[in-house]
Amino acid sequence: GFAVKSWLENDGDLVAQDVAAARAGFDGPKGIRAFRIGDWRGIVLSGRGAEGRLAAACAAADLVILGADAVDVPGGCQVIDRAQLAVTGPIAVWIDGDALRLQPTHAAQRMWSPDAPPPAIALLRREGPALVMKVPDQ
Predict the structure, then answer these.
(1) Which residue has the higher pLDDT, 58 or 136?
(2) 66 beta partners
(3) Rounded CA gap, 95 and 36, in Å?
(4) pTM score above 0.90
(5) End-to-end CA separation in angstroms for the chain
(6) C-beta separation of 60 from 43 below 8 A
(7) pLDDT for position 102
(8) Contacts of 35 (CB under 8 A, 6+ apart)
(9) CA dihedral defined by 25, 27, 31, 37, rounded to 10 degrees?
(10) Contact assessment for residue 89 and residue 133, using Cβ atoms and an 8 Å cutoff
(11) What is the C-alpha to C-alpha distance for residues 68 and 4, in angstroms, rounded to an integer?
(12) Distance CA 29, CA 40 (A)
């Protein structure tokens, strides 16, 4: 909850976490929330047993965000897990041509940021190897 509150605040969004979670664009029961970014399908898995639902989520989505550490990731599954988020902090995701661009929000260019942001940490494409994210050089 603290991380989500900080993430919302850092993006200039001062709504409560439950209000943000209830916004249009997220569907499904608590712990298995589906979303879309353009025609990309995503699932956020959280709560007790989230890692046990990873295989099913991978079969149903292009990108899975897991609120646990990913141990046994199915081949070709694009996963952002708790361990990755501990390293990068919140990650902004948007469409970039035929790919999704992922970039840590702490590296985002804002009007008060004097330097240009580092390149995105990953570009996801529908075909290709599983997501391998690298933290940009600071």
Answers:
(1) 58
(2) 45
(3) 11
(4) no
(5) 27
(6) yes
(7) 83
(8) 25, 26, 27, 41, 42, 43, 44
(9) -40
(10) no
(11) 15
(12) 20
CA atoms of 10 and 17, how far apart (whole Å): 13
Q: What amino acid occupies position 90?
A: P
Q: Answer whether 73's CB lies under 8 Å from 51's CB.
A: no
Of 97, 136, 98, nearest in space to 120 by CA: 136
Characterize the bridge pairing of strands 40-45 and 32-37: antiparallel
- What mean pLDDT do residues 22-43 have? 88
Structure tokens at 126: 């529908």
Using alpha carbons, select from 28, 93, 104 the residue that is nearest to residue 62: 93
Task: List the structure tokens of 123.
Answer: 């570009």
Q: Which residue has the tokens 């929330």?
A: 33
Phi-psi region for residue 29, left (φ > 0), alpha (ψ -120 to 50) or beta?
Answer: beta
Do residues 19 and 26 touch, judged by C-beta distance below 8 A? no
Q: Which pLDDT score, from 0 to 100, does residue 124 have? A: 64
